[in-house]
Amino acid sequence: MKSKTGLIFGMIVLLVLTGGCTAVQSVLSPTPTPAPPPSVESRGGIIAEARIVPRDDAMLFFNTGGTLAEVLVSEGEQVQAGQVLARLSESAQAQATLAQAKAELLAAQQALDTLNKKAALTAEQARVAMLEAEREAVQAWQAFDRLDTRATRDRIDDLREQVADLQQELQDREETLGRYTNLAADNPTRKRAEDDVEQARLRYNDASRELGLLTNEVELARARWDLANQRLEDARRTYEARQELKPDPDELALAQARVEAAQAAVAAAEEALRRLELRAPFDGTVVEVRYSPGESVAPAQTVLVLADLSEWYAETTDLSEKDVVRIRSDEEAEITPDALPEVHLRAKIERIADYPQTRGGDVVYRVRLRLLESDPRLRWGMTVDVRFAEER
């Protein structure tokens, strides 16, 4: 340590003698080398340059050239998907052609419908009759099934035995009464015998009526079911026969061909009209109108610019292959606009491109972020810095 100190002191003295104080100062306080800017990692993540873009945008143009007849919107106007925004002058004739094609299609379809109407009506009437017969058959079967039960059959058997017993009882009482017919009419014994006969006859008649009604009800239900089945078979035969009632094959083919030709004409007219109209591909705002009615436009020449400004996004192609592997979708990032350095907005990575691009000889990837916060001063195309949180 002492030898080194002496050496340094000697060098200082030598420099004073040869170069003066300036040399001494340069040795004691050497000119500092400019420090490199802090690395991205030292600032807590990856920083890339991006631009503010809307949720969706479209440069709208005609596929064919012509004279602009109408511009139906103005800059700043909100439009809905499918809304007509502009038309070429040739669209009036295209609309007339489309209307004529639709009228021909309607006439052709009506002719075909009329041709099929009689046969279809006859077949449908037969089908309705068959369905009604099916319903009646089901209802008749249900009514019979409710009666034709073991309990009903047992009741009928019991009633038959009861009727037979009561009939025998009536006969016995009548025979007993016959032995007392020679007695006076007011004789108590004769009167009891007559009362016994009357009571036996009443019991017999009641049981016989009950048996008859129950038996008749079951048989009537069976007969109605049989009749409903016969009607159903007749209705089915009629329906099958009427299914064969069809229009004349040649007339039918001609009518169908006319309809198909009319449908093709409508499709062609609609396509021709679409080529002469600009329609909004999505809900959005008209941000620029580049032409006015009466001006000529060439094919593929942008007439309107449409954007969905409901949400802001940031897109960057500044991420190298070394950086892109250190971020992932659904992570949050911080957006700082160059024009608003005091503003810091949260954003979420929505998509990292799978397909690479080449920029200045480097491989880079497009990354799209959705802003979770906004500022009314943001504008489409503003440059922003995106600070990504490095994946851990």
Automatic annotation (TrEMBL):
Residues 317-386 form the YknX-like beta-barrel domain. GO terms for cellular component: cell envelope. InterPro entries: Beta-barrel_YknX, BSH_CzcB-like, UPF0194_transport. Its main location: other. The keyword Phosphoprotein does not apply. It comes from the Bacteria. PROSITE patterns: PROKAR_LIPOPROTEIN. Keywords: Coiled coil. Residues 64-308 form the CzcB-like barrel-sandwich hybrid domain. Residues 91-224, 252-279 form a coiled coil. This is HlyD family efflux transporter periplasmic adaptor subunit. The lineage of its organism: Bacteria, Bacillati, Chloroflexota, Anaerolineae, Anaerolineales.
